[in-house]
Amino acid sequence: APLVEMAEVGKSYGNVQALRGVNLSVYPGEVTCVLGDNGAGKSTLIKIMAGLHEHTEGTFSVHGISRNLSSPRAAQGLGIATVYQDLALAPLMSVWRNFFMGNELRKGLFLDKDTMRRVADEELQKMGIEIGDLDRPVGGLSGGQKQCIAIARAIYFGAKVIILDEPTAALGVKQSGVVLKYIAAARDAGLGVVFITHNPHHAYLVGNHFVVLKLGRVSMDAHRSEVTLEQ
Ligand code: ADP
Ligand code: ADP
């Protein structure tokens, strides 16, 4: 069963119709790639999933129950986490503190420093992320490492669906590789990943399912077996 399902979803901002008739399902253990030009509706789509905007038409379901999420907290409570390009990491704080930042009181957690450092280390290692010294400020890490930390943090705090907004857009080839490898690891760990990207090659490397938006509508919807990457 899909974790998240959109059926004929539409969204208008006043008289601007940003999305219409969108059908899209996010399954566990799959990367659903969403591609499309600027203005196609990608941000609007993820904002509906993330609880930042309410849809105006159709049905949005989480675990089979129709919802109209009214806040990011509501989305988070249902296991939907969004990792934005700007990441919300505090550059001057250590890796381990960033890992727990804003989450100390969730899951009944109230851990001492040593435990937080150890748990952060275990969680990052479990998913194959090489960080080294966790006392280092996050600001000194590579863009790829930062993306991976933000994703690992969301997973540890209960996300079942991870929405990634252009996670490789600001990265070079090597750092993009780090993040793509990590997306594949999250997929293989059973998460449902929504991967927004402009890069068809990146989509093809990790994707199970490809959805292209054009002027707010789905213009292509294909499973991996149905596509080849044309250069
Ligand atoms: P993308 O992320 O693919 O660039 P968006 O979802 O940001 O696309 O935008 C889709 C359409 O909706 C665009 O025409 C955009 O100008 C419009 N739009 C997005 N947000 C708003 C808003 N808050 N108010 C009015 N129009 C908006
Ligand atoms: P993003 O693509 O990350 O949403 P943008 O710069 O496109 O970033 O948009 C920033 C904010 O402005 C968003 O909240 C978006 O919904 C809103 N927005 C985008 N396009 C329009 C528009 N045409 N009119 C009004 N608000 C808009």
Automatic annotation (TrEMBL):
Which sequence ranges are marked TM in the entry? none
UniProt keyword annotations, A-Z:
ATP-binding, Nucleotide-binding, Sugar transport, Transport
Question: Care to name a GO molecular-function term for this sequence?
Answer: ATP hydrolysis activity
Domain annotation ABC transporter: ranges: 4-231
Upper taxonomic classification of the species?
A: Bacteria, Bacillati, Actinomycetota, Actinomycetes, Micrococcales
- Write down the superkingdom of origin: Bacteria
Keyword Nucleotide-binding among UniProt keywords:
yes
Question: What is the protein's name according to its record?
Answer: Simple sugar transport system ATP-binding protein
Q: Which residues of the complete protein does this chain represent?
A: 29 to 259 of 282
